Design the sequence.
């Protein structure tokens, strides 16, 4: 799927981000581009396209939504890194947005990315003729899953949890919303572009909830026993920051079994979904389970 | 129009904000509600409804969009007040959001309001049957006019301008985008809900650009010569903060004539627009010109 990563990245350059006639302050465009082009797995765009293609939909039509979800993900990282939040100076080995552009511009760049994501979603209709009714459902899903009931809700719970999170259910709530909801959104959006029916959407949702949680548990495991060279960051940060994790609650071995169980559930979901080609989705589930970084 | 203000305010209570089955962290809902219910003129919702009704559209169908634009306006105030931005402790005589809930929650409450505004826009279709194609155009307009080319662009230019803004054109750019774009959006959205044609949308845009700028110039004038009791804040803050304003560039008398000229342009626009009833829009233009707070 390296081709997909390049296609999405090409849409995220400051020149491609906006219609040519728009006047956008140079500093703002630069700050947005800096974080959009800071690398990363582009997992969410990959999921949009894989879901769309699994139902026989057009990759071209899915690209504006794939770019949009990466904008939302990037905005959330910029705001999370702010001094008032996690106060991080580095991300993936580069200075964080506010360290380069200042806090005010970082806040505004995040706001601009979130807003512009919705513009990008609409372009799947404008530029590629996806029916308005489907695109409106994508807008509604994005607002629900990135907003107060979704990602921002999960982030709020996570911030509060740092002052004493006590049970596995609270941790699961955070994982499901802080990262899980955008993963589910990506799959549903890809499905909607391709014209998925209710049964297929339900299968994509089940697939997403399970790989999303598996992804997080694997993250928790890698932070304990991963290879620092491959991860590109120090391990053990959860322990040092006294963050509760899956291994903290159920142990390392049980956590590994949980990743396998969740991945199995995810695979069952897509195999039952009635897709024209589920192979790419199955590959992604497999990759997420076995990844070492 | 007091009825409209109450109708919109009723939609902005924490209980009414979200579907009943949504789980939203209590602290986040409280922080969102605190700023949404902090008073204010509700000018933008008023414009949505006035434009919709001027074309014979249904007030009910316009309400979700009226609520949405107030969420966007409120998010922008919360983020503007942050220590990294304008660093304000009070707004309309109440403590600002971050002074009550902390910076992290204030950032997240702003993010949540912006995201949820798009959810609310979609409800004009879901709950009131506005055609998907029209609502998608409203989503597109909102993303353009609140985003990097619109309000956030204007805010970025304003922050930069504080380090030495030199000409009237730059000031006009800031006014047009930082506040003007949301006013234009409100009018276009009201028009779109009622099914406005291109000529009517163009008239609403011209009306909006002109009253938006008149509104700002009047703000500049009131900051110089207004009545502190009526304004509910100290005058002269622009001079103390060395902010450039219309009176700074063209003098007080010329600024007053500019407000009259812009208001006249706005009135001409709606009179030429072919609306079924332009009287409410004319009243608003008149009120904005003659307001003393």
Sequence:
């Amino acid at each position: 799927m390296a081709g997909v990563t390049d296609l999405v990245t090409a849409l995220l350059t400051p020149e491609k981000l906006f219609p040519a006639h728009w006047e956008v302050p140079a500093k703002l465009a630069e700050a947005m581009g800096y974080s959009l082009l800071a690398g990363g797995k582009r997992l969410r765009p990959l999921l949009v396209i894989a879901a769309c293609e699994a139902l026989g939909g057009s990759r071209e039509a899915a690209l504006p939504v794939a770019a949009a979800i990466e904008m939302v993900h990037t905005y959330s990282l910029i705001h999370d890194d702010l001094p008032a939040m996690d106060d991080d100076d580095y991300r993936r080995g580069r200075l964080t947005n506010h360290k380069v552009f200042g806090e005010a511009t970082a806040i505004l760049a995040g706001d601009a990315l979130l807003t512009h994501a919705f513009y990008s979603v609409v372009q799947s209709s404008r530029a590629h003729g996806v029916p308005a009714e489907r695109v409106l459902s994508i807008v509604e899903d994005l607002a629900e899953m990135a907003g107060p009931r979704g990602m921002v809700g999960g982030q709020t719970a996570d911030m509060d949890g740092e002052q004493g999170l006590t049970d596995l259910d609270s941790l699961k709530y955070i994982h499901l919303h802080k990262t899980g909801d955008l993963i589910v959104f990506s799959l549903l959006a890809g499905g909607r572009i391709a014209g998925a029916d209710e049964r297929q959407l339900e299968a994509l949702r089940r697939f997403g909830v399970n790989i999303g949680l598996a992804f997080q548990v694997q993250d928790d495991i890698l932070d304990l026993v991963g290879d620092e060279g491959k991860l590109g960051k120090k391990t053990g940060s959860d322990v040092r920051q006294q963050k509760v994790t899956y291994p903290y609650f159920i142990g390392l071995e049980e956590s590994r079994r949980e990743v396998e169980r969740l991945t199995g559930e995810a695979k069952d979901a897509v195999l039952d979904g009635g897709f024209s080609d589920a192979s790419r989705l199955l590959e992604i589930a497999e990759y997420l389970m076995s990844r070492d970084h």
Remarks:
- Strands of chain A lie at 90-91, 94-95.
- The CA atoms of residues 221 and 252 of chain A lie 7 Å apart.
